[in-house]
């Protein structure tokens, strides 16, 4: 855990005074936006991202691509293609036009603490015609990157790092990369696999990535990578459509420019759904996709098991998820290995439940924005909770909680998790709620609006 250098302000998390009844328009998916930016930058023609997420992680991705020469023009979209009719009203009619170009160095990339930027861009940098320096927040030096660095070296790239297989580093782009077969251990982050696949159509021989090692986390995010590659014309062989287990192959090919409307971020819908569960209220999320690779879709099942119920409805503007709490919150025993980023929000709800919970399969969360297992244990326990860390997760035994400071360790999902607890527990103060800017800059305002403030 790394605490902020400065001691940021405390935000009094609002207590819910009754059942929440709200419709919450959730901004675009971080994971889809950053994949779409990379694919559009590597395409052979311009493309559009409509309703992209505008947050720290996506602006860092955009700035990095622009530093390498990609044109990204921000406009307010005049098209309503795929968007809901209330786009103009919500200000979500924003669109980014991406104009690919030769990739150039020297350039500097600030990855912040964005896993997608620090993992997805080194393969892009290897295609540039000069050195690309990567640096970021102190925490980015601690997050695993060795899978990407070692694989790129094996595929022909020259990289200078300090020997730890981590940031900071310089990728000496040679204008092209040979590519071909490579073995990696991606058990610490699925993003290693996604990173190599996303740029692979531009490698001379494409790529064959073979995962060797422990369980691969976050499989839906790899499916998202595969789906989005196929949607821009790439040829991908992968385990789920009959390929060899743990092997992905992407052929060399040109990529199409696409006009893509970004889905709402379903993981960022989590605190709002949790609010319905915790207060026995009802929250509607417009534009919830009928089919998606986003891991947040699993919340329909998980939060139903924890006491709510939900319905995917069709409205004149598209589909919406209506989630209703029953007033009871039940504990859960669940493996979250596929959907690790949902863990903080599930832990928050579990701390308020009427029975214990066991969250499993998420040891790799120790290397996320912060050590999430340690952070959740410490912060819930400091409010009077009874949480213990296991080898790969958390045991949560609900107890009456009291107010206090909930530290966030520069982790957006710690801030939203603390806010969920604050709905039910008086006087919870969130340290550095501004850290939600990583993926949801308007969180405090959205939260207040949901509560009718
Ligand atoms: O590819 C992606 O967009 C992501 C993959 C997952 O990473 P890990 O596999 O490192 O958990 C997830 O936790 C992260 O929030 C986003
Ligand atoms: C793990 C996360 O982010 P990152 O993309 O930085 O890995 C997350 O958003 O929960």
TrEMBL record:
Keyword Amino-acid biosynthesis: yes
Pathway where this protein functions: Metabolic intermediate biosynthesis; chorismate biosynthesis; chorismate from D-erythrose 4-phosphate and phosphoenolpyruvate: step 6/7
EC number of the protein: 2.5.1.19
Annotated residues for binding of 3-phosphoshikimate: 30-31, 35, 189-191, 218, 341, 368
Segments forming domain Enolpyruvate transferase: 18-445
Subunit text: Monomer.
Family, as annotated: Belongs to the EPSP synthase family.
Protein name: 3-phosphoshikimate 1-carboxyvinyltransferase
GN (gene name): aroA
């Amino acid at each position: 855990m790394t605490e902020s250098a400065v001691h940021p302000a405390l935000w009094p998390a609002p207590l819910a005074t009754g059942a929440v009844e709200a419709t919450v328009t959730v901004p675009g998916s971080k994971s889809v936006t950053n994949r779409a930016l990379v694919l559009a930058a590597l395409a052979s023609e311009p493309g559009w991202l409509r309703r992209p997420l505008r947050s720290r992680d996506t602006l860092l991705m955009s700035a990095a691509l622009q530093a390498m020469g990609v044109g990204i023009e921000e406009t307010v979209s005049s098209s309503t293609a795929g968007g809901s009719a209330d786009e103009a009203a919500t200000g979500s009619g924003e669109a980014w036009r991406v104009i690919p170009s030769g990739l150039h160095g020297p350039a500097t990339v600030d990855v912040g603490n964005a896993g997608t930027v620090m993992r997805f861009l080194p393969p892009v940098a290897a295609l540039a015609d000069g050195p690309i320096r990567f640096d970021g927040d102190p925490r980015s030096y601690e997050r695993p990157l060795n899978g990407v660095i070692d694989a790129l070296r094996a595929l022909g790239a020259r990289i200078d790092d300090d020997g730890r297989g981590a940031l900071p580093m310089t990728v000496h782009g040679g204008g092209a990369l040979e590519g071909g077969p490579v073995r990696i251990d991606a058990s610490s982050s699925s993003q290693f696999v996604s990173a190599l696949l996303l740029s692979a159509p531009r490698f001379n021989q494409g790529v064959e990535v073979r995962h060797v090692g422990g369980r691969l986390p976050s499989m839906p995010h790899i499916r998202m990578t595969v789906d989005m590659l196929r949607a821009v014309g790439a040829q991908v062989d992968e385990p789920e459509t009959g390929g060899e287990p743990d092997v992905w192959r992407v052929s060399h090919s040109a990529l199409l420019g696409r006009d893509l409307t970004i889905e709402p971020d379903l993981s960022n819908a989590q605190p709002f759904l949790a609010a319905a569960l915790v207060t026995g209220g009802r929250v509607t999320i417009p534009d919830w996709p009928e089919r998606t690779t986003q891991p947040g879709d699993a919340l329909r099942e998980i939060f139903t098991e924890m006491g709510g119920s939900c319905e995917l409805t069709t409205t004149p503007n598209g589909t919406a998820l209506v989630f209703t709490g029953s007033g009871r919150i039940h504990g859960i025993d669940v493996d979250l290995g596929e959907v690790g980023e949902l863990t903080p929000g599930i832990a928050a709800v579990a701390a308020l439940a009427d029975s214990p919970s066991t969250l499993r399969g998420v040891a790799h969360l120790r290397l996320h924005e912060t050590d999430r297992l340690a952070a959740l244990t410490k912060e819930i326990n400091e409010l009077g909770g009874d949480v213990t860390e296991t080898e790969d997760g958390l045991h949560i035994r609900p107890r009456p909680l009291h107010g206090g400071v909930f530290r966030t360790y520069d982790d957006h999902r710690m801030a939203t998790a603390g806010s969920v607890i604050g709905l039910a527990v008086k006087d919870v103060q969130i340290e550095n709620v501004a850290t939600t800017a990583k993926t949801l800059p308007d969180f405090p305002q959205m939260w207040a609006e949901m509560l009718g403030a």
